[in-house]
Design a protein that fits this description.
Chain lengths: 166, 267
């Protein structure tokens, strides 16, 4: 097996396990849960198959849902960002996105920040909309989404630098 | 035929995405009520197993706080014990219909969702069955929902699907407690007619007219109320006695007469 692929699989496993065992139980300021597993979708290489990414997103989302009793909210958020990832890449990186393996290091900082933020914001928005699922909570949904996006962005940014070195 | 296959292959990502979205929505939809669900059971098992690991580590850091709570709980029990001896004990026991209580520890808890679930470290093997009432030293916590061999999940009082029969302690007016999903310290008391007299600070206890709880278990006290409703009922905010963010030791109530009452209803 390709050495690079094996390394990424092990890292993914570590991320999922630390999400299940540690980050699921963290509750910063009473409303923020760090969802570090989103980093797996953000850092999924553009050269890999997109269909696998959607199936991978479904699997990871389902595991997180089962462990947190959120009944499909994580799954839906995950598969949606996996499905839209290619479009978000195109929007964030412009012409550079078609260059395979040029991701993510070697791109401009603003492009990278936009890319990270869009995915994390979209994930939080879908997740909290499904969790609250009532129109009268619209303001709460946006508040939770914005605060969670900012904190999660910082955490995932650090993870991408430290672990994946991208 | 070839063109159909080609278009399926071309749009396979969209098709897979829509299929998985449908599956996820179905999963979400089927689990929104408090009834038994097979998938929820698997969830209870997985979250129970993973949370147990975290809970074990975490419990070491909370020992000091845990001790303080236990002492407080012990004192409370001593007080009750002394009252028990004074009053003739027979009348109290026969009124509550509680067969026995089981003790359990919280291993997963949340207060920041609209449908909060608590997972405890006791399950079917310990004699827990569906829809048993759960209380803490301070009052009502919720109702057992799903059970595996070693873990159970509880629909918390802080779950918008749960309604509990309740009464005003002073006047015995019957209402029901539910949560609007906003503030984890405040629940709502409904169905109290404007004709009854209430005041801020009145204690709310369980009404006993359900399978889950006997009469008289504390829930909270009236925080504020609004009598301007056109429907003829107060809208009352109740601040709950329990602090749901720091639940640890819970007691599960087993009522002896449930099966008998249920068989009566089914006839």
């Amino acid at each position: 097996m390709n050495r690079e692929l094996a390394r990424e699989m092990i890292l993914s496993l570590i991320i999922i396990l630390s999400q299940l065992l540690i980050f699921n139980h963290m509750n910063l300021f009473g409303i923020v849960n760090p969802y570090i597993y989103v980093s797996l979708f953000i850092l999924y290489k553009t050269s890999y198959d997109k269909t696998y990414l959607i199936l991978f997103g479904f699997l990871v989302g389902l595991i997180i849902d089962l462990s947190m009793q959120t009944y499909g909210a994580h799954t839906l958020a995950s598969i949606t960002i996996c499905f839209l990832k290619e479009r978000i890449e195109k929007y964030s990186f412009g012409v550079n996105s078609i260059l395979p393996l040029a991701m993510i290091s070697g791109t401009q900082l603003t492009n990278r920040v936009t890319y990270f933020l869009i995915i994390i914001f979209l994930h939080s928005l879908i997740y909290f909309s499904l969790i609250f699922f009532k129109l009268e909570f619209t303001l709460t949904i946006f508040l939770y989404t914005i605060i969670n996006s900012i904190i999660n962005f910082i955490i995932i940014w650090i993870i991408s630098k430290l672990i994946f070195d991208r | 035929m070839q063109s159909i296959i080609n278009s399926i292959v071309k749009n396979r990502n969209l098709i897979i995405y829509l299929l998985l979205t449908f599956i996820s929505f179905n999963y979400l939809y089927n689990n929104s009520s408090i009834h038994y669900s097979g998938v929820g059971k698997i969830g209870t098992f997985i979250s129970g197993s993973t949370s147990n690991f975290y809970s074990k580590i975490n419990s070491y850091f909370n020992l000091k706080e845990e001790n303080r709570k236990l002492i407080e709980e012990n004192l409370e029990l001593k007080k009750i014990e002394s009252q028990f001896i004074r009053i003739s004990d027979k009348s109290i026991i026969s009124e509550s219909n509680i067969d026995k209580t089981l003790n359990a520890k919280v291993i997963l808890n949340s207060i920041n969702k609209s449908k909060n679930i608590i997972v405890i470290n006791k399950g079917g093997l310990n004699g827990i069955t569906n829809e048993m009432g759960v209380i803490s030293s301070k009052g009502v916590v919720g109702i057992i929902k799903n059970i595996t061999d070693n873990y159970s999940s509880i629909v918390s009082l802080l779950n918008i699907d749960l309604r509990i029969n309740a009464i005003l302690k002073n006047s015995s007016t019957i209402g029901s407690i539910s949560w609007d999903g906003l503030d984890p310290r405040i629940v709502q008391l409904n169905d109290i007619p404007l004709s009854s007299t209430i005041k801020v600070g009145d204690t709310i206890v369980t009404g006993g007219m359900s399978f889950y709880f006997p009469k008289g278990i504390p829930i909270g006290k009236i925080e504020d109320y609004n009598n301007t409703s056109l429907e003829g009922y107060y809208s009352i905010n109740v601040s709950i006695f329990n602090d749901f963010s720091s639940l640890s030791n819970l007691y599960i109530l087993e009522r002896s007469d449930n099966d008998e009452i249920k068989s009566l209803l089914n006839e």
